[in-house]
């Protein structure tokens, strides 16, 4: 056999040996410790991703309920909202029906024409309307108006102020307002602690509601723009 043939045969043998060794490494079973290490790494990655995608326990999604509320900015565009719990029916009675009734009762048209007397009473009504309009209200009056809105929206009966849904809604409105305040006042530590306290208090109320009725719980969360993950388990604010 020539030297070239012997070299070719040796090269083929070396390739076969290398292929065999590679296959052995590729198909070898992993050590249990290595498998455990990989599983723990996967579990940690999933937990980190779960926490990263967890919704905020403070910021709620926009809902029709929040759109019906007022802030000091939005109240300036509202012309049909009043202080002191004045309803739409009461406003209609006070500003539309009362002037004509007062004109007839007081007999003001005896001294002057009925049109002039009615116009005078309507002018008085306009003055009262401006005084009690929500546009002239302070922040506390706007908060009271929003609280009444919570009762109307979530109350299970007329005048319901104690149901879990109403309490959770009132806290949610306060949380939203305080969160907006803290966005502009980063160093307000006192109100930051108050915010955390209200978030945990709302979570307790919703937990109680869930124990009473899962359907009511889910309906309340949807109306408040909250996800279950945001109010259940450990809450970090």
From TrEMBL:
Superkingdom, taxonomy of origin: Eukaryota
Keywords of this entry: Ribonucleoprotein, Ribosomal protein
BP-aspect Gene Ontology terms: translation
InterPro entries in the cross-refs: Ribosomal_uS15, Ribosomal_uS15_bac-type, uS15_NS1_RNA-bd_sf
Keyword set includes Cell wall biogenesis/degradation: no
GO MF terms, alphabetically ordered: structural constituent of ribosome
GO cellular component term of the entry, any: ribosome
Keyword DNA damage appears in the UniProt entry: no
Short name of any one Pfam family annotated for the protein: Ribosomal_S15
NCBIfam families reported in the protein's UniProt record: S15_bact
Entry similarity comment: Belongs to the universal ribosomal protein uS15 family.
The protein, known as: Ribosomal protein S15
Source organism of the structure: Mortierella isabellina
